[in-house]
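quick one if you have a minute, typing this from the bus. below you get a single protein, a line of residues and a line of whole numbers that encode the local backbone shape. could you go over both lines and see whether the tokens make sense for that sequence. anything you notice is useful, everything is just below.
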Amino acid sequence: MNAETRDRSRIALLAVSGSLTVIVLLLAGFMSIAGAQQEPEKPPFEGTLVADAPGAMTMEIAPVNLDALGPEWRAIFAETFEAASWEQKWDVNLDFSGAGYKWGTRDVPNSLDPASKSVAWAIGGGTKGSALDPLNRSYPSGVQSWLVAGPFDLSSADDALISLDLLYEASNGDPFTVSVSEDRSKFTPQLTVNKNVNKDDGTWEQRSVSLSAYVGKPQIWVAFTFTSTNSANKFGALMDNVGVWVEGEPGTYLPVISYDFTPTPIPATATPTATPTATPPPAGSAYETHWDDANAGLDGWREAFWSWEGDHQLDYNGDCDDNRCGFLELRVEEPRSYMLVSPIVQSKKVPYTVESRALIKDKQKGDKYSLVWGGSWNGHTCPVDSLNTCFNQYYELRVRYNGDKDETYLEYSVIKVTGHDDDNQPEGDDLIAWSKAKDINPQGWVKWSVEYNEDGKIKVFAEDDSGSGKVEFKNATSKEYIDNPFFGLIVKTDTDDNTATRVKFDMFRLD
């Protein structure tokens, strides 16, 4: 793929193939399974989960070189199957036939990705599949395993595609299918891999499926299905590195989720004017936003949680302050009011460092901001009106402006938020009690860093603009939220007398 062109023909549909035979075989497999002795798993779908044969089209396109995609492309969903909690990232994993086989993970080499340690196997989960060994290279009859992701919002996308690594080795009539639904009930096959139709030699291949027919849709679900009417001494279907990619205009926000992925920044349309602090972002980070560089604008940041009372504002500020230019600016009003903002992008696995540079404006006692990581998510769109799908639990490094007329200072604490009370205020356990941030200037910009490690150890650092260097503070340990994916920022009025707090953020990085 040529990264310098946005020619939509690169993921245009292939001509409708003569694959109705495959679809008939797929439906025949569904019908033969209906007589299985074991009661099928009841799916939480509205209506009946079916393949929409009349509308089936071959949407497969030439394998996409993901490294060559231009900056207008980004992944809104990415699954490597490395995390132990991988199933929580999917809408549903079904043994639809009731035969005892679902998608599960196994340590099988992926020749396309030497770094991969775990892949998904279409019969590796469920009451019977969990005991299977892929080295035996055998799958049973009567399988119909569905793995469904979504919903994804393509209403603002210009184009979209699915990418995956696939190892398919099965008998005639036992297909692997990629399907799409707009209602989470009726799924239309977009790609069907079947013996005598597609390559079948038990080797890994990179596959790409166009979603251009669904551009503009407010929600879609994607299903990966393996169906067997026979048994065979073959692998069946394995897949790895599943991604949903969208092409969008600069600054367009698509409210979807990304996993274990390094986002590609989307540049602004116009080249920004050089500023005194236009420092290139560090390389190799999992997520980063520098509001003074080509990512000017909010670039996906939005309100994810807030207090019931009080006004709250999330803005991009292109002005300069203390020789820094371009900020994310957060403001909340009313005593003990707060707002949590996030790009709704999931973090990479530990170890990682959460880092942001902030400046408190107006400087009133009780002004507070926080770095958030380890935020929870229950698998549905985040947020929703009931605020019950994300950030119900998280870790929070709190920074507060304090002091009196003789001395002002910053103090910090670390809390494990376990939930929220009836007033929607966070509750939890102190991991580090409020402590004075010695040797840190409270009047200017301060960069806070939190290191989070595999053993749950939390290390806190701060550095102001005085040039005296990074200061390490107290440490804590907590592993409860080590697999929770979300991160963000909080601004809060922390006392009954504090009626408004305004904080500027110059950058945010999770590395």
User: Anything to note?
Assistant: Residues 20-33 form the longest helix (14 residues). The radius of gyration is 25 Å.
